[in-house]
Amino acid sequence: AAILIQKWYRMYVARLEARRRYTWTIFQSIEYSGEQDQLKLHNFFNSMINQLKLDTDGQPKIARAFASSQRPAVVASETSDISGCIEGIEVESSYTGPHLTFPITHAQVKTLIQAFKAKRRLHVRYLLELLNETQKLFKQMKNINYASTSISKQITVCGDLHGKLEDLYMIFHKNGLPSVDNPFVFNGDFVDRGASSIEVSIILFACFLASPNEVFLNRGNHEDHVMNMRYGFMKEIIRKYKDYSTQVTKSFTEVFSWLPLATVIDDKVLVVHGGISQHVSLKSLARLDRHRVSRNESMICATLKQQYHLFLLTLQTVVSHNDCYGWSPVLSFLQFISVLRPPSLSEVSSLENVSLELQRLEEWKQNIFNDETNFLTLKPTFYVQVLDLLWSDPKSLMGCNPNTFRGGGCYFGPDITENFLEEHNFKLLIRSHECKPEGFEYNHDGKVLTIFSASNYYDIGSNKGAYAKLMGPDLTVHMVQFLAYQTGSVRKLTFTQRISCLEASAMQDLREKILTLKSDLMEEFKKHDTEETGTITIADWCSAMESVMDVDVPWRMLRSKLVKLNSDKRVNYESTFEELQIYHRYSEAIMEMLYRYKDSLETIFRIFDKDNSGFISMSEFTDACTLLTRHTSVNLSPNQVNDIAKSLDLNKDGQIDFNEFLEAFRIVDQKNLNTVSPRNTESEDIYDCASVNSFDEPMGVKRKITSNSELSNLET
Amino acid sequence: MAASTDEAKENADSLFNEIQRKVTEAFDIFDHESNKTVDEREIGTIVRSLGCCPTEGELQDMLHEIEEEENTGYIRFERFLPLMTKVLMERRYKPVPEDIMLKAFQVLDAESKGYLTKEELEKYMTEEGEPFTQDELEEMLSSAIDPDKGTILYKDYVSELTVEEQ
């Protein structure tokens, strides 16, 4: 009897574990397929630059919108004066939020934390002043921070926070605030996705200003203007600082571009957000000008550089036949070609044109770069290095392979890690960038440690957060895990209930994704349904799902939750879409397609919305949809686009409120007629960490952590 | 005659293919590094998640068949697939129906109280059969103990877990 019960129970637990695993797979696949989308958008913008056509007034319409709104990232020096943004902003006497004076002290850090817990907002003037001071200090720092534990004898390393204030509070609650005896490294991705990116940034920057030698901030791939447009930080800025969103955005972008790229602890441990590659070398990294290199900029630079070389070659060919200019001094001045004036052969038909072109380029260069940095000496690998630092993931496969999941950086293998650590005489690489169920994970035989500090990242109960304490002369690693919850939310779930909740939430996300591809799926189903019975075999259903959906999930295991079978075990494929339907308040036409590309559309909108007003004109909207159809292979006829535009222009004044447009999408659960999406991710609650339980139950299989002998200790 | 045996063969083939795909899916979920190997400690979980209910001893036998000669601690997919397919085709290790489970608990309930105390369950689960680890015991207790009574109402527990399964 005992054996029966034991094996029955073990089977039950195993099935629960499988469910937990595929729930995780679903969340992660959906997340990464979104990132792939972002890459496609980037690639699209790059190819767009290559193919610019001049229209009648000599300026490509789309490029102008793109270029001028891209200015914060591409034309960095123009906006380096944050203090210019602050002028004229006064703090009203009616303001009840926290006041800041500079230099920032530890006491002020505490004031800020208390204020945010009381749901106050920092006045925009103080925010801009804070950003200004932060940027000034960052500017003086090198690309790589060097941290030492000689005084403190220990140091704490935290991973991604993604705007989750409750997790930051939890870390400070458990580990204390930063100070001379308590240094911290924060490893990037402070913003996007969570509800309080601004507050998290403010606290981190304030901590940094109060203890600049004890708080080390690394740049993450989300400290990037274009990422912020898609992943929520921009939205948060517009919501919280509506009237000053342009200044705030510019200032944040400026500060981000000056963030150091990595931190070295005691010359033994490297902390960087993404990872490494065969191109990465700390020596060459130390030399480059990190301010010029943000992700989108680096990609644009790559394209422009190609163009530029082509142009140069052309020029060279023409001029050398006329035996005029000495090229070396000229070459040393020529920089990147303006986005607004791509080169064209026809322009270089005469000597006069050449000198004009050179002059133009020189002017352009002086407008953009205020120093003499000679970009010709910058090897292309420099910005590739930065991409690799911020976007790479460790994998078990040897060597360096392009990171196809994310679209940037690479997959680096154990050999790359080994070589890198040996070359620099380091003993450990700490990185973040990937969510892990336990909040941390070791790879490459204990030589790579991933730390992720945003608990409940995908949904409540999805994962723990963690931070690492490196202690003693050997920097022994002690992991601390935690779960931070919103006050009042359900906490006392059993293991089983927690998995069921999480599974339901993942399934919901999956169903939404399925819904966006309904017409493609139906087409595929019908191909298998040769006799038009409305049913197909299970195998056919699975293969249809595999081929149409671009997420890698176990369809066979999920089948019973997604579709109905009829009496002879065939799948009634229409039931795939039974539960949910997309409603859009304003536009019946093409709503499925628009919903599918909602995130990309939003990014494009934001690029067009130069003044961050939340409004774009009808013609800009049409341009945005055209951009979208070019970047995907979807056909939106001009008529369809016009129809949508007209229906969106509610008060017929030629302006579209695209926030309203996006908010207007609702996924409605047919059965209960409840709105199930969007889930309320924008709650403004500030979480009181003192009331949080420490959660002792495991998130999954209790595996022994394989690691070096030095790595030990799990605390909860 | 020929037609129906052809059909029968076709059905058997497609069943075989379906089973193979099922096994592949289950394996992939636990293939943490996406390199077609899993930690051997997870094999039990995979086998059970496919609906089989082997004892620990039976699992060990399975493992011996498919583990590498040099004990790497990892099981490769190429070895796992044929064995697992066979297991499923032969319907080995079928799970026990609810009424038998109930009887098993009743056997442990020597005094026929209709419930088990925490101590009784703990004793049987850790001393008899293929004993639970401390962790397994704690997990089972946390879900099995009725919060109001502090005892294990096994009839309800069996029903609850069977429903969850379905």
TrEMBL record, chain A:
Gene3D superfamilies: 3.60.21.10, EF-hand
Keywords, comma-separated and alphabetical: Calcium, Hydrolase, Manganese, Metal-binding, Repeat
Domain EF-hand: from-to ranges: 516-551, 596-631, 636-671
Enzyme class, broadest EC rank: hydrolase
The EC number(s) this enzyme carries: 3.1.3.16
GO molecular function, a single term: iron ion binding
Record flagged with keyword Nucleus: no
Cofactor(s) listed in the protein's UniProt record: Mn(2+)
GO biological process: detection of stimulus involved in sensory perception
Reactions mediated catalytically: O-phospho-L-threonyl-[protein] + H2O = L-threonyl-[protein] + phosphate; O-phospho-L-seryl-[protein] + H2O = L-seryl-[protein] + phosphate
Segments passing through the bilayer: none
UniProt similarity note: Belongs to the PPP phosphatase family.
Protein's name in the database: Serine/threonine-protein phosphatase
Organism: Lottia gigantea
TrEMBL record, chain B:
GO molecular function: calcium ion binding
UniProt-listed Gene3D superfamilies: EF-hand
Keyword Ribosomal protein: no
InterPro entries linked: EF-hand-dom_pair, EF_hand_dom
GO cellular component: organelle
Keyword Repeat among record annotations: yes
Name this polypeptide is given: EF-hand domain-containing protein
